[in-house]
Amino acid sequence: MNNYMKEVQNICLTAWIRPKQDDIDYEKHHYCPRSLGGSDDENNIVDLTLQEHFKVHLLLAQHYIEVKDKSKSDSMISACWMMSNRGKYNEKYMATPEEYEFLRKKHKAIMKTKMSKTMTGKMPVYDINDDDRKIFHASVNDPMVKSGEWVHHTKGSKTSKETLKKLSDAFSGVKNPRYSGITDNEIIEYSLELFNILGFIPALSNVRRWTKLKYNVDIPKHFTKFRFPDKSWKEQMEEQTNMTYNRYQRGKNRLKIREVLKEQNVKN
Question: pTM score, two decimals?
Fold first, then answer.
């Protein structure tokens, strides 16, 4: 028997033999908790003060953590957490800051595991026959899901053209966080200038580096994702140079660019 259980035993034995006082609030405690299989027999019930009741459950939680009985420790921690969070009545159990922190962390981990197990293999769905499209969770192996009567909540939902237009207007041009003020034609010109020096189509990263070091001009890192709607940067470069872009020359490009910049006395 460890120190935690010895203290639980001392508290309960003292409570069994002492007389009850009218000016003190008591709560019935199951010596062997019901959540662990204890009965409602009188021999298993003892009247504890509010502080004693909370302390006993906390000691039991610490005991089962020490003996590595996860199911029992989780049960006791949940009981302690509930006792210390009774809304307007939570002044009944005056947990110390250290005890509160201990319970909060342990209970959070317990609930995270429970939620993970609860939601594993499930997805948010709605009934295709329900006009209100109320969303609920169902197993991916549910017969209604497999039959197609319950479908994923995103299926069939479309963004209106008006909404798409508003989103486009809200992030176009200077409103776009990646907008740098440089035009598409200027990007191609800088790329061709570097091509004429190197003799091959440079990587995009090297074009950005070239323009930054030589002209102190910033090209957005992901500009190809919202630039050149008709032809991509790569397609335009291949068309104008009659060469094929080799993405695997990036490392060689970087070394050659360093040499070119050094020759032109550009700070590297």
Answer: 0.47
